[in-house]
């Protein structure tokens, strides 16, 4: 045990490059900084992302369908680039340096959009689409933010978890629960304070506040450098995976019995899986650890792929749900509720549930009450429950949209609170799925691939947003051949959004069965 402890701490160093002292470096204090920074960074990201549809429609004068696709493409790119950010962190820089680089890039993109929102000559005239130069400024700022967000979200949770003792799995699990709490708190601020500012003071003020907030987040993170512990990157994990595959393919005609040291795997987590990769051990070019690292990463991919469809459902909250809310009754006494603020209700439930969950787990462990019941909160089971709730949310969304459309045809405007069901169910689904994925991918990942593996959680979100755009296009194309496009035009009262939601429900239910298959085999 002493050797393991020495090896564990020997892998980390302080900011001077010396061996990290566990009494001075890392720990709960250092990991809590990541949670504080996540509140501010996620507030900035979501406050802009959730309102980009309205910004593109009202300020940049893009059509509704194009605006929706622009938002999903932006969100998708942001989360997809987490793989790139994770790769950079695992291969070339420490997670601290990677965060500084990508957070600065996100800040520069925000500054560019702030300038455009401030200068009327950089915006199109009324009822005109933006010029080429105006579009160039918009897209440069937009995708600088996307690239920055990708790097930040890839390394921040992994950096926070690195500060903790990995032998204490309960502590790691607790960190990811509180990290998700920070994500939700940032979302709550963006759905209330920031949306009020955008609705009442305008976009230029929103961008200014975002720039200041992100600058503060960058400073807070940077000031923690003396107490952090750092892990040096171990070189490109993708190169090692490629070498394992190349060696296994090169030795495909050789008998497996000739592979030496097969019985000398460390954890043997995937010893019975991907057996064909054992051929890579023939010869001296590939080590047993490299083969095991490759097997472990490949074992994560089916779980990752099974969560994509849920995020396709989640994308609707950023697009069509906002458009639905805009044509519904948003009045509460004399106050008009911004549609985007509907996310407040599920966020408040999630913020309350995380401390309650932590309290119950601690209580059960102290009193040893029903210890077996805690297994239901293991990451894979939480993810499965989240996927099931996503299907339920699409059922609710389809029913509400059919009812809203029928009422609109009778000149009756439904209350926006009818959308609360889909917001609530999808919010809970996101809490269970994303929280479970962050913990699962970090804990199960090879030690040298934790940033890339944690980025799979966000990459799943990315693929969901892209698939949402593709499904909109396919649905319109197919339905157009049989009459009228489901989602054609700008008026939701003359579309069949309810049928699109039904399609998402069917696809996600099939995906749930696929997930159960892979989760049981893991």
How would you explain this protein's 3D organization?
This protein has 18 helices and four strands. It is mainly alpha-helical. Strand 3 (331-332) and strand 4 (335-336) form a beta hairpin. The radius of gyration is 24 Å and the shape is globular.
List the helices and strands and how they pair.
Elements: H1 2-10, E1 12-13, H2 28-49, H3 52-58, H4 64-80, H5 82-91, H6 95-118, H7 132-162, H8 169-200, H9 203-223, E2 230-231, H10 237-250, H11 288-306, H12 308-314, H13 320-326, E3 331-332, E4 335-336, H14 344-367, H15 379-409, H16 420-444, H17 450-481, H18 497-521
Antiparallel strand pairs: 1-2, 3-4
Helix pairs in contact: 2-7, 2-8, 2-9, 3-4, 4-7, 4-17, 5-6, 5-7, 5-17, 6-7, 6-9, 7-17, 8-9, 8-14, 8-16, 11-17, 12-16, 12-17, 12-18, 14-16, 15-16, 15-18, 16-17
């Amino acid at each position: 045990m002493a050797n393991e402890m020495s090896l564990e701490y020997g892998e980390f160093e302080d900011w001077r490059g010396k061996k990290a002292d566990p009494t001075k470096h890392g720990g709960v204090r250092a990991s809590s900084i990541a949670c504080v920074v996540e509140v501010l960074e996620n507030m900035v990201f979501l406050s802009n992302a959730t309102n980009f549809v309205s910004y593109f429609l009202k300020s940049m004068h893009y059509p509704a369908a194009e605006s929706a696709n622009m938002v999903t493409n932006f969100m998708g790119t942001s989360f997809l680039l987490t793989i790139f950010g994770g790769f950079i962190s695992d291969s070339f820089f420490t997670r601290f340096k990677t965060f500084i680089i990508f957070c600065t890039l996100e800040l520069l993109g925000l500054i560019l959009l702030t300038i455009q929102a401030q200068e009327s000559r950089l915006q199109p005239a009324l009822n005109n689409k933006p010029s080429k130069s105006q579009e160039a400024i918009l897209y440069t700022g937009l995708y600088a933010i996307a690239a920055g967000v990708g790097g930040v979200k890839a390394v921040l949770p992994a950096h926070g978890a690195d500060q903790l003792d990995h032998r204490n799995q309960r502590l790691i699990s607790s960190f990811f629960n509180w990290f998700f709490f920070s994500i939700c708190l940032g979302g709550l601020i963006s759905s209330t304070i920031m949306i009020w500012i955008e609705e009442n003071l305008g976009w230029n003020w929103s961008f200014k506040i975002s720039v200041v907030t992100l600058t503060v987040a960058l400073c807070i993170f940077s000031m923690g450098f003396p107490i952090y512990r750092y892990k040096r990157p171990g070189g490109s994990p993708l190169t090692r995976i490629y070498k394992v595959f190349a060696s296994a393919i090169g030795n495909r005609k050789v008998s497996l019995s000739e592979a030496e040291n097969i019985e000398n795997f460390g954890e043997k987590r995937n010893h019975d899986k991907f057996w064909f990769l054992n051929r890579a051990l023939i010869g001296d070019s590939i080590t047993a650890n490299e083969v095991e690292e490759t097997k472990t990463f490949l074992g994560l991919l089916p779980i990752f792929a099974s969560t994509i469809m849920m995020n396709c459902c989640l994308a609707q909250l950023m697009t069509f749900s906002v458009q639905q809310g805009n044509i519904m009754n948003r009045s509460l006494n004399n106050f008009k509720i911004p549609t985007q603020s509907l996310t407040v209700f599920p966020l408040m439930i999630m913020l309350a549930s995380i401390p309650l969950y932590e309290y119950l787990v601690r209580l059960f462990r102290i009193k040893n009450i029903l210890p077996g019941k805690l297994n239901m909160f293991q990451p894979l089971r939480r993810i499965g429950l989240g996927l099931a709730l996503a299907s339920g949310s699409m059922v609710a969304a389809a029913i509400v949209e059919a009812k809203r459309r029928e009422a609109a045809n009778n000149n009756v405007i439904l209350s926006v609170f009818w959308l609360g069901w889909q917001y609530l169910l999808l919010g809970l689904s996101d809490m269970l799925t994303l929280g479970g994925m962050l913990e699962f991918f970090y804990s199960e990942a090879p030690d040298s691939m934790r940033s890339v593996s944690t980025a799979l959680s966000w990459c799943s979100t990315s693929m969901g947003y892209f698939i949402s755009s593709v499904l909109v296009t396919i649905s319109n194309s197919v339905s157009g051949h049989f009459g009228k496009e489901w989602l054609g035009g700008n008026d939701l009262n003359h579309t069949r959004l309810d049928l699109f939601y039904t399609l998402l429900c069917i696809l996600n239910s099939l995906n749930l069965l696929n997930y159960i298959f892979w989760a049981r085999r893991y």
